Amino acid sequence: MTTKANLARDIANCQLCAGLLPDPPKPILQLGFNAPILIAGQAPGRLTRVRGLAFDDASGDRLRAWLGVTREQFYNPSLFSILPMGFCYPGTGTNGDLAPRAECAAHWRRKVLIQHEGLALQLVIGHYAQQWHLNSQTNLTETVRNWRAFWPAALPLPHPSPRNNRWLKANPWFAEQVLPELQAQVTRLLAGRAGLY
Ligand code: SF4
């Protein structure tokens, strides 16, 4: 069995956080080892855990609109790899979902990323992913405002959740300046690949 197949199997069977999660471990990710675009997110929510598919919700609809892609393209692992910072739903606290389990990135992230070939763009969603992938030392708004420092290899994004509507309204430059550049780059990167046309 190849290293990639072993990795996929080992993640699917991971029990590292058993007893530390509200439910039995259920990793939810999309391994696209040859995809040009990585989506580095936070962690599945409760609904995503039930459905078993990353971004199969209003957040995903908005993210796909930001990218200018269809569901079919989004869920094509030859186009997109989807790796949350924590692969399993971490539970909910008084202020919303808990942070991704730190064990997950510590144990899996480098092993998985090193198997990716040809990544051209990392879309880095939320504070936890921005700390890990971009070594961000600033808050999310400042990191996203400073997006050109990472572009075009990576792009920090706010979470596309409807809970962020107020952030999006308060920061109109994001839709005006960042999204057109993002959509143009995604179109360039996916041009000619399976699933685009
Ligand atoms: S969160 Fe990650 S490390 Fe923890 S059980 Fe799930 S897959 Fe394993």
Automatic annotation (TrEMBL):
Q: Name one Pfam family in it.
A: UDG
Outline the extent of the Uracil-DNA glycosylase-like domain: 28-183
Which species is the source of this protein?
Simiduia curdlanivorans
Q: Which CDD domains match?
A: UDG_like
Q: Which InterPro entries match?
A: HI_0220.2, Uracil-DNA_glycosylase-like, Uracil-DNA_glycosylase-like_sf
The name on file for this protein is Uracil-DNA glycosylase family protein
Source domain of life is Bacteria
